[in-house]
What does this fold into?
Amino acid sequence: MSVEFRVLGRIEVRARGGVVVPGSLKQRLLLATLLLNPGRAVPVRRLVRTLWGEEPPISAVANLRTYANRLRRALPPLPDGSCRIAGREAGYELTLRRGELDLHLFTERAEAGRAALARGAHAEAARHLGAALSGCRGAVLEDLAGHDALAAAIAPVEELRLAVTEDHFDARLGLGEHCAVITPLREFTGDHPLRERPRAQLVTALYRAGDLAGALAVYSDYRRVLAEHLGLEPSPELAKLHQAVLDRDPGLTVTVRAPQPDAPRELPARCGAFAGRAHDVARLHDVLRQRPALAVVHGPCGIGKSALALEVAHRAAASFPDGQLHIDLSQASRVPHRLLRHLGVPAKDVPWTSEEAAAVLRSHLAGRAVLVVLDGATGPAQVRDLVPAAGPCAVLVTSRSPLLLDGAAHVGLSALSEVDGFELLVRLAGAERVEADPSSAARIVRCCHGIPLALRLAGTILAHRPRRSLAWLARRLEPEKRRLAELSYGGESVRAAYAAALADVDDPLAVAAFRVLGRHGLCDAATAAVHLDTGVLEAEAALDRLVDLGLAEWGDGDTYRLPGLLRLFAAELSREWTAAG
It folds into this structure.
């Protein structure tokens, strides 16, 4: 029996020629959460929060069980006769077969279309993207979108739907269908008045159709809408398009060119276990669509900056047909020279000085759709001269601190939520093993304080010691004095990562301030100044430097503190410094 699960529009399950899912709100919320996490056990606590919010009734778990049983009976069984919804100790899991969920089909077709669009194969792109959009009946879970508990899960899927719609307009413009897309573009911009990309597409379509006044009117209207709603001006890219229309620039009719067959593909393998960060992934995808693009992912040591950058880079690779470059700045020297060689520039044509090489690099990147990933920047000077001022290039940078770079979009990372930490542990240690002892898994996640490095080490320890139970590791991690010693495997450890981060701090007063925080745990600048034997402003600057580097965070009021595992590390160092006199 054919079964269709639909989330692209109102939630539906179709079988036996009609809708088979009961229409109660709680059951639809439950089903929607399971459909957005197919093949994974969704914890009971998360489901309770989705159905009842932050103040669930005492009977919430029992009521959840009732809703799950009703939903289990309502859904058509799997081909072998078994129920689609299985109860686990960790929660509930929905099993789907390939092709049953419209979102999966949409994603597959969209990826194929975007890859074709990046190659300049507009006809193929339009075919795949059109097929993807044909299954959309409206906004993602539009009947449930008002529920806050689902908003975080819905947002990236809805953003993908809108972006694919815009990709489809690009493909059709590339085919010369400018007249045919004018009406749907007007409708789309009417529904989404603050989105800039479709405005630019509509300006282009009207100009190519010979309606110069209409193209200029679209720009003027968007400028008014932005000013009224956000107090902003259109982006420099849209302003350039407006000027190009005024100048009747012949370049407006140029289509996307084909990729170079020998383009570099240098991205390292993406992280095998990646969980959470849906909002950050969506944000970076949005940034990389604006060309030229410059994005900085920053956050403390061990927070997963490199993993996020590589995940986004791999997902976006098809949009950069002229190549993807990757440099670990902590290991590299003469970066402009290396990038030029990777782009195929003969050694004899690479200037000797870094300044000249950077200028030549900018020239090469300005005309190419290349994605450059610079991992581990310690300051803006390492990056600033490498970024071209125009063209289809994009640069994605990771750094422990925000970097002062003109035009850069910043994405700051913090600890994973308990739900995302649990999911990461599942992916590392195995779902069956974690689900067999969810309480111990939750203890491990809490001991790791949401730090991806710590969770990855804990999961790796479990994966390589299959005879050890989760309870065994939880018992070893719970004593705070042992925790950092336990979070170590294969030459990698949380302690070593923090030690390296502290060693990179080139401000002696900031290092001394870290020592003060390690001894006292929480203090303000005035208290720190006493212990540092310096002025309050100097102490405040040192503490702020630690915050910038992810080695401290602001507490309540004017205080500073050390979070989680960093506090344990600082306390260890404080004891060592005290013992050493």
In short: Residues 254-259 have pLDDT under 50 and may be disordered. The chain has five domains: 1-152, 176-258, 278-412, 418-496, 505-579.
